[in-house]
Amino acid sequence: MMLFLLLSVLNSQAFTLISTGNVGWQTSTLTFNVDTTCNNYLGAVNAAMNSAISLWTNAPTANLTLAIGSTVTFSGTLSQYVGTSATLVAPAGNPTIICSTTFSTDTGIAANSGIPGVAGAFNISSGRIQGGLLVLNVQSGDNANITTMNSTVVAVIVAHEMGHILGLGHSGDTSALMYYDASAKNVLSLGQDDVDGISFLYPRQEPRDKVFGCATIENINSGSGGGTSLPLLFEFVLLLTIIRLGIRNAKT
Amino acid sequence: MIDPSLASEKKLILGVGLLSQNFSRVSGGVSGNPGLGTIYPEVHLSYDLFIGAGYSLSPWVLYTPMLRISRDGGDTTNVLALALRLKKDLSSSLSANLGVGEFIYRMYGPGGTTTLNNGNSTATFALPSGSVASTLFTVNTGFGFAFSETWRTDLDMMVVNLFSAKRAFNAVLSVGYGIL
Ligand SMILES: [Zn+2]
To answer: What are A37-49's pLDDT values in tens digits?
Structure first.
């Protein structure tokens, strides 16, 4: 009996969060705005966003409703927000998705590094995420330009970066969407670790979440207050692209 | 009146088995393909209150006594589930049940930070701190087979979010022992 129980215990790596203090958004209904820089890629961006939104919204034990919002124009200099020596945080408000044709300049990441997107410029105050930016790589000729990738890969990238915007850090669990390297993913899905992470930040509590619809999130039982902002630039390696290019180069 | 098929069976059952949370719903590996769900050892107790014509009211409580502990201690989770089922004897050994219940999923975090890969470098990430529970209504259904007066096996299902795209199946395969 003991042996049976011991053998049955699953081990896995755990989810992490972008900031100490269990920091998520105040609301459980969050809208992602799309910057005008994505106008030329709306088909691909909207398809990926819709898939990513359904994925997180449908996490069984979480209480989140995500949506695509309006088209906006981001007026700042992107490198000051998500560059390697960024000094600014995103303005408070809905998170914004930006498509960058100058991705390497904007982020400080060398061209052809295999990084299709970053999430960052987290505006964290009063123990909540108040703003954030999700920048997609559409740099012509770059090996991680999302417009050259198939729709499942783009959806995985957008869903992963969306996970950061929602408050999740990376996971050491290879089956998790929030694992730092998604090159082996050929299906868009959440791992239990992702479900745990998003449920931890946005727990579903019926009947409250049924009777009152989309409630705001209560303060969770963390003990710690305001949360320290980690001014991180989240990078997401897409080795698959590099491997593909490697194969292509080897052939030619 | 006592139903002859039930007269000799034990009413208080202690069961042990495996719970699959989010069966075929969460990624089972690095490719992202769905797997068998998240498996926990479970123990449960049920009691059959005979109400006539082969029917019993059967309260049921399940607990996962060992936390599912992540390898790096980053978080732990466990499940407490309660249900009230209506159980019908289909034959002297086979029974089916249908009921409603509650699924309480608790997640614990140690707090602090950890260092993980962040693309082409590493970065410090925060670990969850404290405990949080998600509480969901369930629709329960299951089948049981009694081998003898004291030993039985059951397959039970707790469905959460039945009427939405958040729907997920939590399955329990168990062996039960009749105590009383
Ligand atoms: Zn990432």
So the answer is: 999 999 999 999 9
